[in-house]
């Protein structure tokens, strides 16, 4: 076991970084009864890794049944949720049948919500296959689907019984998905772990090229930040909001650009530059250049055309209205120390975006 999520009410579950071949031993260890299990995955993951998962489970006496869904954010929908319900109920499950969410954050969120609601709750095992999912989305129990009015508007807090991350699965990730995950790892370092930040700086070239020997440490350390936050604030009544560092601008960028033009992590990386600028205004002692320079090493090729400040501000207001909340920003007071504030003026936001545009101009040399 690498970590344990131990919630204040006594619920606890292990988080493991290890080879897929040892997953069945962990299923035994957490007390699941061998028999039927349902795997929910997407087409890309299925083509690359489903055979290995299936044969590994079968070798230990499991009877897996796989449901393969299309890849992409659109799959986090009521239509595909219903498809999981139909397939699971037609195949035959009972309350002890585990559901394995085998994929990135999309599959983890969707299948997690299916597990939360089928027969009022099936044992959920998260087997994340993207960097974002391994260090972030598979941990903490947020599950759900999107609605036409916005992302993640329907869902439940439902903790898994086990999170099992195999770093070697990440070697097949497309380059942009890897970069997107690295942006989230940098985010975890900025909000919660100065040592992780130094580790990233020291080994950046090797990490960027996914050197297998560094992956377990990278993943385990980035997971630890999420675990620390979640055990203190499972339901996002306070601290958990710091995980949204870079997300206020990030969500607006995704919305204005049209979902899909930027990956989530690319948008968050740009949002983090804006958030660092705002942080530096309030905390001049922050090592601003050092922090920005790691983010700027992320290879983000997408041009920022069309992302005017007024469109971004409108998009932030839409988010705010949908959630009936105030416009909130996560800022840093020091490396590894984040807090939430709603005291940011429109003028400052505009200057922060100007800074992002300027950084990009310098980075691409135009
Ligand atoms: P994703 O699940 O769409 O995966 C990205 C792409 O990588 C997909 O095309 C997928 O098929 C492919 N892929 C996955 N694993 C692969 C592998 N090993 N090899 C090759 N290709 C692979 O996206 P994501 O970035 O993992 O997750 C984003 C989602 O996570 C969003 O919906 C977001 O809202 C959610 N999220 C949830 C939480 C949470 O706390 N629940 C936190 C962060 C993000």
TrEMBL record:
Gene: aroB
Originating organism: Rhodothermus marinus
Residues reported in the UniProt entry to bind Zn(2+): 184, 247, 264
Catalytic activity: 7-phospho-2-dehydro-3-deoxy-D-arabino-heptonate = 3-dehydroquinate + phosphate
Domain 3-dehydroquinate synthase C-terminal: 181-322
Gene Ontology cellular component terms for the protein in this record: cytoplasm
Protein known as: 3-dehydroquinate synthase
InterPro entries: Dehydroquinate_synthase, DHQ_synth_AroB, DHQ_synth_fam, DHQS/DOIS_N, DHQS_C
Cofactor note: Binds 1 divalent metal cation per subunit. Can use either Co(2+) or Zn(2+).
């Amino acid at each position: 076991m690498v970590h344990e999520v131990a919630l204040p009410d006594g619920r606890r579950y292990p988080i493991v970084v290890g080879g897929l071949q040892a997953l069945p031993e962990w299923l035994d260890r957490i007390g699941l009864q061998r028999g039927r299990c349902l795997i929910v995955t997407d087409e890309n993951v299925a083509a690359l890794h489903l055979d290995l998962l299936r044969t590994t489970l079968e070798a230990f006496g499991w009877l897996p049944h796989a449901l393969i869904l299309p890849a992409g954010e659109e799959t986090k929908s009521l239509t595909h949720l219903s498809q999981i319900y139909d397939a699971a109920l037609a195949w035959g499950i009972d309350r002890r049948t585990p559901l394995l969410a085998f994929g990135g954050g999309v599959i983890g969120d969707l299948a997690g919500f299916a597990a939360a609601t089928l027969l009022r709750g099936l044992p959920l095992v998260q087997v994340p296959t993207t960097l974002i999912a391994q260090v972030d989305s598979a941990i903490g129990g947020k599950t759900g689907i999107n609605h036409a009015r916005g992302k993640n508007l329907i869902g439940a807090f439902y903790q898994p019984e086990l999170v099992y991350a195999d770093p070697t699965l990440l070697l097949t990730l497309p380059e942009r998905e890897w970069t997107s995950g690295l942006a989230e790892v940098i985010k975890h370092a900025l909000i919660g772990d100065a040592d992780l930040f130094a580790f990233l700086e020291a080994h950046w070239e090797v990490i960027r090229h996914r050197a297998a020997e560094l992956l377990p440490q990278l993943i385990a350390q980035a997971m630890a930040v999420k675990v620390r936050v979640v055990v203190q604030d499972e339901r996002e009544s306070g601290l958990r909001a710091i995980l949204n560092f870079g997300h206020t601008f990030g969500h607006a960028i995704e919305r204005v650009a049209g979902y899909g033009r930027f990956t989530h992590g690319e948008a968050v990386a740009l949002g983090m530059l804006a958030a660092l600028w705002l942080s530096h205004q309030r905390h001049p002692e922050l090592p601003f250049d050092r922090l920005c320079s790691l983010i700027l090493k992320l290879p983000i090729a997408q041009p920022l055309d069309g992302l005017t400040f007024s469109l971004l501000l409108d998009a932030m207001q839409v988010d705010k209205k949908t959630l009936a909340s105030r416009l909130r920003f996560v800022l840093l007071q020091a490396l590894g120390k984040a807090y939430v504030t709603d005291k940011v003026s429109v003028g400052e936001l505009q200057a922060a975006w100007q800074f992002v545009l300027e950084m990009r101009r310098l980075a691409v040399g135009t």
